[in-house]
């Protein structure tokens, strides 16, 4: 299964041995819960691949992981290069992107997914980001003096 994540509407492409279904899922909690209920009814095991773009994937990924699904990320650069090579154009749309994600997932071209909140690193990650900002500001002050 591949999900093209967006701010308001996710495009979901599910392929089984029998059929291939494409549908849209609004980015709301109720619709994500409905999607999870449908995924539990789908043939298992189920691997979900998505492109980590912006921050819109984080709530969806967190909910899918806590529901017990195998979620992997697919590189944005790999998607772009594969889409350009396959379709020989810059034309980009959500259903096409979901198909590209599914093909890359089937080929095993995925990245390791680590969710800091699930892994227990969220506090450490926030501390590192804060330290980075403090260091950056200190360097700016030193250079301005």
Task: Describe the protein in words.
The structure is a single chain. With 145 residues, this protein is of the alpha/beta class. The chain has 2 domains: 2-113, Nucleotidyltransferase, domain 5; 116-145. It has helices at residues 29-41, 57-66, 76-87, 94-106, 116-119, 122-144; strands at residues 2-4, 9-15, 20-26, 47-50, 70-73. Strands 3-2-1-4-5 form a 5-stranded mixed beta sheet. α3 (76-87) crosses α4 (94-106). The longest helix is centred in the C-terminal third of the chain and has 23 residues, at 122-144. It is globular, with a radius of gyration of 18 Å. The chain starts with a strand and ends with a helix.
Q: What's the overall geometry?
A: globular
Helix content: 40-55%
Low-confidence stretches: none
| Secondary-structure-derived class | alpha/beta
How many individual β-strands?
5
Percentage of residues in strands:
15-25%
Q: Compute the CA-based radius of gyration.
A: 18 Å
CATH hierarchy: architecture of the largest domain: 2-Layer Sandwich
Q: CATH H-level name of the largest domain... which superfamily?
A: ATPase, nucleotide binding domain
Number of domains: 2
H/E element sequence: EEEHEHEHHHH
What value does the average pLDDT take? 84
Q: Biggest β-sheet: count, sense, barrel?
A: 5 strands, mixed
Count the helices. How many? 6
CATH class descriptor of the largest domain: Alpha Beta
Spatially, the strands of the biggest sheet line up as 3-2-1-4-5
Distance between the terminal alpha carbons, to the nearest Å?
A: 55 Å
CATH topology of the largest domain: Nucleotidyltransferase, domain 5
